Amino acid sequence: MAGRRLLLVLAAAAAVAGPAAAQEAGPRVEVSDAAGLRAALDRLEDGGTIALAPGDYGDLRIDGRSTTAPTRIVSADPARPAVFSSVHVKDSRNLAFADFTVRHTLEPGGPSHSDAITGFLLRNVQYAEVRGLTLTGSVDGDLTNDGIGAAVRDSATIVFAGNRCHDLMRCAVFHTVQGLVVRENTARFIRSDGLNFAAVSDALIENNDLGAFPIQHGDPRKGGDHKDFIQFWTNGTTGSNRNVVIRGNTLIEVGTRTQGIFIRSETGVLNENFLIEDNIVYSSSYHGLTVGGVRNAVVRNNTVIGKPDRTVAGLNVLDSVTVQLEGNLTPRLTVKDSVRVLEDGTRLIHWRAGGGYEAVPYGEVFANAFAVHDISDLRPLPGGLATETGAHRRFEALDLGDVGIREETSATAPLRRTLRADCESCGEDAAFRWSLGDGTEKVGRAVDHTYDRPGRYVVTLMREGAPPVRRTVEAMTPLLLALPFDGDTADASGLGNTARWQGEPAYADGRDGQAARFGAGGAETAVVVEPGAAFSGLDALTLSFDVKLEGSGDARLVWLHQAFGVELVRGGLVVHLFGADGHRARMVAQGALRPEAEWHRVVLTFDGSRGTAVLSVDGQEVAQAAGLDSRLAAVENRALTIGGIHGRFLDGRIDSLRLADRVMPVAELEELAGK
């Protein structure tokens, strides 16, 4: 019976396995701006191709368009793609989109409903192809202000293939779609979910490459993100997911915990007829590959790998009816007692050799399973289990070769990288050439490089006679802001924050070099850094600055309204911390800045994982707080002010201000920011 149902699943998938890309037919119109595009759409009543010259085309809306032949909207030169702010298509049919960019940025305080935050939207559309698009958000290093790359809702016969998602909350969402192909897409630097499905039928999800979901936004136990590479669900639908093939996907966790393939039914309506095969999952989540709420599933030849020293990821079968397991490779197999499972040939692997685990250690299966940043790092050892069990066919198809990249970082120099060619079979005289993603090229088996600015860089390693190997290097700094105040307000963090004086700029001798002089002659002056939102919503921080009082009076030394602040009150310090849960904590250190005419080093740390905060002056703890929320409040349309605000201005000097997004020693901050 299971074999018969498997054939039905495969037949359903074959029906939508994806026609070849729509070929150019009919008239071709070349356009160079949004007005020309709109005119071309009006002109091509029976379909044709609209070729877009490079440029910005703003927001495109298509409503009620139906032609007998496909209408294709493509970049004339894919190497120089056209750019849209958004593309929304409703109540239409027979369309194809290819080779352009949708860069959808969200305005603070703007609409937050699903359509408004989606860059590319198909709603009630039949027969559409979406190929070769780049879908992105604001690309500002902050994934909390980005939306959804693509959404397809209430539609039929859709191909979504070869697209690239990055810097988004979610890559793509498919809701109530019949006849769907999602193939060979990539997703990197995603906040929450990669590919999200609800009430889809006759669907093929194949050869997608998802990885590097770097942050955990909010506490998942308190309404924060539950991150998944591939997720199927039924909440808010009247049906379920039916006739689905999930095949050959590579899901590589880099960053925070991300569930691999997760299938469930919240409504009690069972999903039906799933074939899940040849997928590779590398994850620290318990739910490496979880099948729940499914009637009739075949799960075969998948490789699940748990990250070392983390939760033991595994293959889980929950609340389902008739599940067949064949030839999977996983650190753990968990099956709910009430589920009828037909099992054949599951093999167990584990990062720890011995220790009570009856499993083959990773070191006998993979060349580099302890330091994976990309699928190219995960190479099966010849003759090992991974070459004959699990997703061995997928590894063979990837042709990863025998060369990988190992990356070493420095805690005190976060923009510096040591990159090594990992190749056991290469001789000592093997020649390696590196392209480091910022225009720099170097040669050698191992190279050291320091990037000038934080960012994400695609590194390419080349060796004669072998395919190139690529890795995305995330060269980021924990510094959010660094103001040395050496005669200006330039930011030394490398992030390019804009700080400006409010009132007449003034500088005086500092603790090291120069310092900002506030309140000279009774003036109410401050330094303002905008936008302050970049410094809010943190789950950890270290704030350090030097201060010297010149006169009496209270002042708000460093202040981000409704997020955090340090103020001077009668020669002492008062710290205010505003939690994301609405609670406010207050720490008081009386007389902390005495003697008043001397320099003092003030350091505030907040650790959301422990719910604690500590205030130190000159290396001595002067106040503590506990029981705090795990995250500080997020604010919009506020500036970070230094020196004073709301009538409370400093008469004194501030030097060497630094703000980081983690708890760290001041000595390390000094290494990062110089002075």
TrEMBL record:
It holds the Pfam family Beta_helix. Residues 424-461 form the PKD domain. Residues 1-22 form the signal peptide. Keywords: Signal. The keyword Signal applies. It comes from the Bacteria. This is PKD domain-containing protein.
